[in-house]
Amino acid sequence: MIWKYNILTIDRLVLCLSLRTLEGNEAQEFVNNNSPEHWKQNNWHERHLAFHQKFPEKFAPDESVSHPSTLPVYFGNVCLRFLPVLDITIHRYLEVPATMSKTLDVLLDHLGSLYKFHDRPITYLYNTLHYYEKRLRERPHLKRRLVGTVIGSLKDVRPENWALTKQYHEYMLKKDETVNWIPELNYYITLVRRMQDTIDGNNVFQGTDWRFNEFPNPPAHALYVSCVELLGLPVGPQTVANSLIDVVVKGYPVIPEFRVHNWINTIGLLMAALPESYWSVIYDRLKDIISSVQMTDWTHRQSPFEMFNFKIVKEAMLEKNYVVILAIAQSILHHSGIGQISTITDFIKEKFKPIIKTEYQLIYLCHVVGPFLNRLSTERPRAVSDITLILYELLEQVDKAQSSAPLKYMDPICDLLYHIKYMFVGDMMKSDLEAIIRRLRPALQMRLRFITRLNVDEIGVEQQATEGSIPASGQSQAEFKPQVGQTVGAGGVGGTTVQQTQQSQPQAVQ
User: Fold this and answer.
1) Contact (CB, 8 A) for 164 and 151
2) Low complexity bias located where (predicted)?
3) Selection from 387, 289, 284 nearest residue 343 by Cα
4) Do 465 and 449 meet the contact criterion of CB atoms below 8 Å apart?
């Protein structure tokens, strides 16, 4: 209106603001004399008209014959109409340099009480902290000020603990800007327990009329207020995310025995609702597990399929770090949107692929991505193809790293690859996968030969051509070539004989 359409010039705007008569704070008077729960008041309309009489508004030129009087205002006023403008103004202040934050403090002091009448104050606060997380990361005082202003404006009409925990209330009451509160693990356990109790049906937020509330039910309300509190903490995203994960990893003894899965589900729900800098920390924890000494040098008596099974580990009281991190990762990915879960391909390439050298590490990664292949095939088919190619490349990487040692679990790995072929990718990746399969050891080629229609006579030929000798496993090619009529135990194709295969080939040619 000023620079593009020239409806109003900047000098006239500043002049009008400077010459405006100071008649008091209309916003503060409106807030003090009215309530956002207008359905509970019998004389709300009288109070509204009294405000308009004291601070009249003109929506048309002065009354004359050609301009009759306008209709009376029954609900809105300048304070209510200014709320969306105030929302945008605060966002603009967050985008400018931090040196102008004092101006934002003055604005919140004078007009922050208007959020008492905001339709969705928690949603606005959540969206603001979520979108501007990077800009607010190093400004904990401003985050505390925003949370305190919006939620504090409703202290007269809402119960005491309707949104924030007691610990965060105590943090907001501290006026010193240098206060650096680092919550302990008990704080996160309390926050997750409140969320879990709400999901279980125990209404923690008493005195809330859900007919007129911002959210339709207590769990949705608990999720948003918990995320607002986590985003408003004066610590970094990695600290918050690791603490949430440690609620189960380190706080396992305080969790009820039969509620562990529920708590893991709640943590996944919270993490998935936070920005990427929070939920991406789970990939760092997975990387720590995969690169651990136990994964590179397996010393457990149990197989990896037993150590990665939550039920077996819980009942046998085995080492639980593997399954707990795995369960939390699957919970986060389950609650994530498709935009979040589709990034798993990039994280596998960047974080996991360079460190996977053993079949135990590969099996653990398969436990991470396996449950979500069906969803990805529906919403992001390209992601399934990328993950499939990565799994074959990792299998080749493991094969080369352990060329002198036998692979104990090649059959289950091949079973998964056959499952992916027949359920998701089909033959569309045949040319890409055939080149990788031909570079594997003959035992793996024998098991995966039906994926690329590899003939038995061709198995091990490429290794002999490149190495000029017997394959690295120390066995000759004849040892891997079964006799006619002998059953070959291939993953997913058990019971197929070479004789049947050779008999079917002439028929196909005919």
Assistant:
1) yes
2) 496-510
3) 387
4) no
What string of DSSP letters covers 279-292? Answer: HTHHHHHHHHHHTS
> What's the CA gap between 454 and 441, in Å, rounded?
14
Spatial CB neighbours of 447, under 8 Å, sequence gap ≥ 6: 410, 411, 414, 489, 490, 491
Q: Which whole number is the average pLDDT over 80-99?
A: 88
Tokens of 461: 């030929």
Write the pLDDT tens digit of every residue in 408-456: 999 999 999 999 999 999 888 888 899 999 999 999 999 998 888 777 7
Instruction: Please state the pTM of the whole predicted model.
Output: 0.82
**Rounded to 5 degrees, what angle do the CA atoms 477, 481, 486 make?**
160
User: Tell me: the pLDDT tens digits for 365-417?
Assistant: 999 999 999 999 999 999 999 999 999 999 999 999 998 889 999 999 999 99
Q: Name the token pair of 466.
A: 């490149």
Spell out the alpha helix ranges (H) of 273-380.
Answer: 276-279, 281-290, 293-296, 304-307, 310-316, 321-335, 338-341, 344-347, 359-369, 373-379
Structural contact between residues 124 and 158, judged by C-beta atoms closer than 8 angstroms: no
Q: Which residues contact 42 (CB under 8 A, 6 or more apart)?
A: none
Q: 140 and 234 in contact (C-beta within 8 Å)?
A: yes
The rounded distance, in Å, linking the Cα atoms of 484 and 125 is: 72
Please state, in angstroms and rounded to a whole number, the distance separating the CA atoms of residues 66 and 69. 10
Query: Which tens digit of pLDDT belongs to each residue from 222-244?
Result: 999 999 999 999 999 999 999 99
- Are the C-beta atoms of 295 and 360 separated by less than 8 Å? yes
